[in-house]
Amino acid sequence: MNNKVVAGIDIGGTKIAVALQDRKKVRTAFQRFPTQAELSPHLIIENIEKKLGEMLAASGATLAAIGIGCPGPIDIEKGLALSPTNLKKWKDFPVVEIFEKKFGVPVRFDNDANAAALGEFSDGAGRGFRDILYVTISTGIGGAVICGGKIHHGVRAGAGELGHAIVQPDGVLCRCGARGCLETIASGLSIARRAKEKLAETGSGFGGVGADEITARTVVEAVKSGDAAALSVWEETVRFLAIGIGNAITTLAPEAVIIGGGVSLAGDVLFEPLRSHLARNVKMLPIEQVKILPAALGDESGVYGALLLARQAVDDF
């Protein structure tokens, strides 16, 4: 049948994206809607199922497979969301089983960072490479490793958690239980927290906004205007990012590092100093041969990756 499609579902703590794609890799339908994380996981999944059912009915297509990206940690073999930090009610929740029973098609499942990495690898900034490190810098910091064109999962699908690499021993306590993780310094939330601390210390800066209004975006805008307090916070942010990413480059020797997430939208304000720091930090391989690139798919990397997972679930698609 020529009207078969696959579905990609990108589940986030704030928003969910669902897309359909046909055999020619043409996206035939797309919806994004709030997660409503305060609801029970069953109600959230019911909402996704309803949206997907409506999209299939409107397109007149037959579903061949589903790919799902979900916040980690997850159990890929059992199809479970274990205890996502931004979906706190999803403990040991059987995501794959529910979708398989509802739609009767194969379901492929991975964590959201891996799905985003696959999206960039297949349709974005990672095209043409075989070995990439994907880093997302948003509310938190996540990552994924693609080696030889395939996701490297490691023990319990835990590979790529760059946000929880320790870069400042005895630093701030992280939500993971360790101290000094990269996420406690360079994530969007941590950038805002450190900026508020700086504002309390100096009493000025950041474009004159109040502490309650400061976000990572506020800091970036203040950096662009030459604000001294913001520059101080930002320079420290980039320095520690370069430590974490540089260590990963030295360990993995990827062809490219692709950086996505909201903080990556800072553009040259992020990428130019980051490249300079990495050139100083990485000495065991020719850093000029490692491309440091912004993600090309924006906030749709995850749904593109979920579509690829779905395509991989059916041999003849």
Main sheet: which strands, in order across? Answer: 3-2-1-4-7
- Derived from helix and strand composition plus strand pairing, the structural class reads alpha/beta
Number of helices: 9
Give the biggest beta sheet: 5 strands, mixed
Topology:
Layout: E1 4-11, E2 15-22, E3 27-34, H1 41-59, E4 62-70, E5 74-75, E6 80-81, H2 95-103, E7 107-111, H3 112-123, E8 132-137, E9 141-147, E10 150-151, H4 183-186, H5 188-202, H6 216-224, H7 228-252, E11 256-260, H8 268-281, E12 291-294, H9 301-312
Parallel strand pairs: 1-4, 4-7, 8-11, 11-12
Antiparallel strand pairs: 1-2, 2-3, 5-6, 8-9, 9-10
Helix pairs in contact: 3-9, 5-6, 5-7, 6-7, 7-8
Describe the structure.
The chain is of the alpha/beta class. The strands form 3 sheets. It has a 5-stranded mixed β-sheet with strand order 3-2-1-4-7. A 5-stranded mixed β-sheet has the order 10-9-8-11-12, sandwiched between helices. A two-stranded antiparallel ribbon has the order 5-6. Helix 3 packs across helix 9, helix 6 crosses helix 7 and helix 7 crosses helix 8. The mean pLDDT is 94.
